[in-house]
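Dig into what follows:
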Amino acid sequence: MPTQPAILGTARLGNVRLGYVPAAVMARRATRVRILIAEVPARVRVGSVTIRDVLNDAPNTCSLTVDAATPPVVNASLRITINSDTPRLLFAGALQTVEVSYEGLPGQRVYPCTAIDDTARANARLPFGAWTLVSATTIAQSLVTTFAPGFTSTHVQAALPVVSVNFDGSEGMNGCLTQLAKLIGGYFYWEDFDLHLFQTEASDPPDALDSTPGRFLDDPPIALSVDDSQTRTRVFGKGHGENTLADVGAGETVIPIADATMFNAIGGRAISETQPIAYTGVQLGGGGGLVGPGASPSAAPVVTLQAGAGVEAGVHSYAVVFGTAAGKSLPSPLATVTTGLIAAPAAVTATATTDQHLGQAAFGVGKKYKYKAVFVAGAAETDASAASSEVTTVVYAPAPTFGQPITIPLPTSADPRVTAVRLYRNTDLGATWYRLGDPALGASLGYDRVPGSTFVDPWADAQITGNPTAPSVSGTQFNQVGLSAVPIGGAAVTYREIHRTIAGGAQLKLQQTIANNTATDGVTDVTADASLGANAPTTDASGLAQPVGQLNAGNTSIIVAGTGGFAAGGGWAVIGNGQQVIRYTGVTGAALTGVPVSGLGAILATVSYNSTITAAPALTGVTGLVRALIKGAPVNLWVQRDDLAAQAALAIRASTPARPHDGIVEHRIVDERRGEASLIALCDADLQQFSRGIKTVPYACRDVKTKSGKAIVINLVSPPIHETLTIQDVTIDQIDTAPATPPRFTVSASNVRFSLEDLLRKLSAGLEGL
């Protein structure tokens, strides 16, 4: 020690570092452990503290012995940290059990305790909810906010993969988080009232295990084990299921089930007990109505072609709907008409003949005539043909006072709308044309004549001059439609609607409304397709009573008051509350058709009109059904997922020259809560973990950054271990047993995490094999 006194003013400020702590003290402070029970420092027996840090759904636990100076109580909080300067949390939870005992003498009381972390408290609620194609980050945050009051989700990894999942209240929060973790191939744990959910927890990583001295302890010796016994390279998933509504025969292509909403609308795979099948689509069903013809008009309107512009050319159907104060009826039967061009006749020929005169008044001798023809379609005529060559009458030999009759071959038309031919003639080269014939005489001698026949003109000028003059020049476009004989309803009917299809279409749309229940003619239809109105009703809301009647057993069709809810290509229909489930192959008019006469899907008992009938949900385009299904047989979603690269790698490992291996090892996952997307994600996550064997490394270290869920990099020459694994399980002991010595962390690291659920599933599978 220096004895020379200091001289004031010779010391240099800054030459001494205020707050300097020696290295030995720093080391001790870094390893100093602080234990709080109920937020109060506790006296704990040295060497009695052991912490178990386990990943996912198993809670972290702690055991310790507390001195009598601070007697603990059940449910008191327990918090253990290390490092006086920068505290690091080793455990946070609550005392679960507290015993009282003594050491040596009864007065020397001690309290052996166990504690559990926040996992159990977070599991107090049963979550409900459904998410489709939503990030697991969003789902986890929502679960914590809604079902874990007092907890936070600060350490939920951002932008986790998109998943689909349903929670039905059948398990607690930890079960739901286990599902999420599986779907993303990740992990979770609770710490200090905060959720950690992640694929990789990259912050504050532990030191790599390499040749650096002190990185790991020799007890237990570090080792690497590789286990192929749990390897699978193909995973089948069995998900949500529904029961069949009826007996179904082998080879059936449509299977009725209770609900098809969980099945893929564009097809997929399913399994019924032992039969995997494929399907190409679904029918959601649910629509329907009543058995019987309904209260719709019983007759179609009469439609008649008219010349002129308006309606597009093509085939159009018409129907009538009754309207009441309650609503509208179903449409009547259909009337069909084809609008568009009808070609005019070609020029006709006229020849003076010696044919019998037919006893009519005579032509004059030496008369000169020309003829034109028109086709008749509906209520209109086409344009006229060109005029024939001039014909001069001469003396008719049998009767010298008569002019010779003139014969005109009548033209034909390939258009089926043409129903007749009309002839026009001028009188002795006059400028006026007159229509031949007298309608009172009928088709043979009246205005309308049969196309393709031969007509002999016997008419004297005086007999035709009173007829309407001039051949039609109204145009050859027949794009207007006359409407007549519109049905009249009962007293409750207050208006009627005319509905029409577009050219070549099937959907009836409003064309006009007749605002009474008396008129039988509608306004001539000149409405363009684009100007048509709302669709015709598909259910009867008129309140009108349909007729009394029934369908007998063995009927091959079912008339229904509305076919809108039924598939045009066929399916199944449920009568009443499931008393009969009927197979049909199509829809024709107002009926379900193609019902079997007997057997599966037939009408087996009389069905009264007004019985309810609904379309059954169903899988369509089914293939692979080789055995019949009984009513109530389950049909479940079924997916197959393959890891082709893992199959190739296993084939190389497992093959010998004598016994080649294809590398396929199959595994099945059953979770009937899942839809297809969620089931695929679950199977893919399982393949990601188990397709290449289980690698496990046990070791011990004193690295305080060691924590379950974190990645540990192992890069050793001897033994040769080069892996990056996830820490699954950590036991922390030797806490504060020696100055400046961190606790011991005994670790199990692996590429696969077996949760309690995994172990129970394995046990169940083993029992099934007994």
Notes: The CA atoms of residues 54 and 216 lie 20 Å apart.
